[in-house]
Amino acid sequence: MLKGKLLPKLVLAAMSAMLVMAAGCTPNPQKETQTQRSLKVMFYDESYFFQQYGDLFAMQYPDVDVEVISTQSIYSGDEVTDYNKAIRDFIKKEQPDVVMLGMENYEKMVSDGELMELDAMIERDKYNTETIYPALIEMLKEKGGGKLYGLSPTFSADAVFYNVDLFNKYGVELPHDGMTWADILELARRFPTDGDDKTRIYGFGERYGGMSFSSLAQRIASAEGLSAVNPDTLKVTLNTDSWKKAYKTALDAVESKAVYNPEDGGFMGGTMEEYYKSQLFLVGRMAMTIGDPYTLQSLKDVKNSLKDYKPFELGMVSGPVDPTDPETTRSIYFSDLFGIRAGSPNADAAWDFLKFINGEDFARIKSRTMNNGILSRMGFNKDYDGHSLEVFYKLKPKLSNDSYERMEKIPMEFYQEYQQILDREMALVEKKSKSIDEALQAVEQEGQAALDKAVKDKEAKKGSEDSADGSGSESSSSAGSSVIIVEPSN
């Protein structure tokens, strides 16, 4: 229970009290005399929950005893093929009051009537949502059929990070907001490619390692909303002009040697100093990369960790964007999306929790760190280590048309086989054994065969389980005994 965790920690209590004063929070003494309320919160780690949310919440609501229901068992047990379903099964079993969801499960649980609508409580309490990132509210309402069923105190987004000093040194024009992948890779090719592997610079690369031709093509396709499988028709479609262009753009960029793609795969282990030196953008050997808010923290860490570190001027612009819709991005993520389970007996305490962690006082305190992304409550996360965070709020999230119900038609077993086919064919392209057209045609044909088989196997399995369930029901009725019928998993 929360109180048992906090009382022995006198130092933490003192620090927490100072935080309350700094944030302008004044605990309500009347709440301490109220009956204690209980709250079960679903989260991936108990210790991190109290560090990030729980201890601060306790200062404002001392009458609420919080129990954390950790989801770690989902990932540490038997092999799981569908984590979204495993999470929903976990919720049904554990019955938490507050649930933490990804966007897929948010949409699914809204559709199934398993989340509590928040609009009525927002109106009742006159809770201010005007200064919450509008794109977040719009997205959650769109996925909620026009109503709001969850809130996320933080989010993460991609932006184009660039080394101003390198651009100035080589006379290359600086990046601009609304960069497409074609824009980025064109600029990257304007940097020199000479020098040895330990000293040369690169025009572009991933922050954490090499970027292969195939992975770069997938990033381009993702930004443009290309999908290999149509869940409505269950057709694999790759042999198209758009896909060919994405792969050709990626192949040309990698073959130009402007993109960092080490043959050994990059850093494979060693000291922290060796790790930092392997991150070429962080140490000034890469002109551009795609970064998120944590990139700023990494830049601060490397500056404080390497003795011979040479700082450089950092620039950030919005992107990469789809050239057909440059005001939006498909690279905005909400990690801690909280909702209230429908039927929760502790809905009032759950709503108090959501209000607090999405509120101004919480944002004011958390604005000093970058532990969990950018704050959704605007006006508090203005900069980090001297760098403006405005770039992360510039683009609106681009919603996918692939709803959970549509994507659920594609068997999970298909994806692994499809990836193997794709990897094999793209390796042949890199070896010049096949053209991009030939490879995409092969992936489309073999991928379709794999999908047809996976769908057929899924239907056969479901039919078998339905049959077994039906016979079990008949047996239990004729026997006249109490038997628990297990529902089929699909």
From TrEMBL:
Pfam families per record: SBP_bac_1
Keywords for this protein: Signal, Transport
Main localization (coarse): other
Biased composition (Low complexity): 469-482
Signal peptide: 1-22
Subcellular location per the Swiss-Prot or TrEMBL entry: Cell envelope
InterPro entries assigned: Bact_solute-bd_prot1, SBP
UniProt-annotated stretches for the region Disordered: 448-490
Composition bias, Basic and acidic residues: 453-465
Parts forming coiled coils: none
Top-rank lineage group of the source organism: Bacteria
The family this protein is said to belong to: Belongs to the bacterial solute-binding protein 1 family.
UniProt name for this protein: Extracellular solute-binding protein
Source organism (scientific name): Paenibacillus haidiansis
Lineage: Bacteria, Bacillati, Bacillota, Bacilli, Bacillales
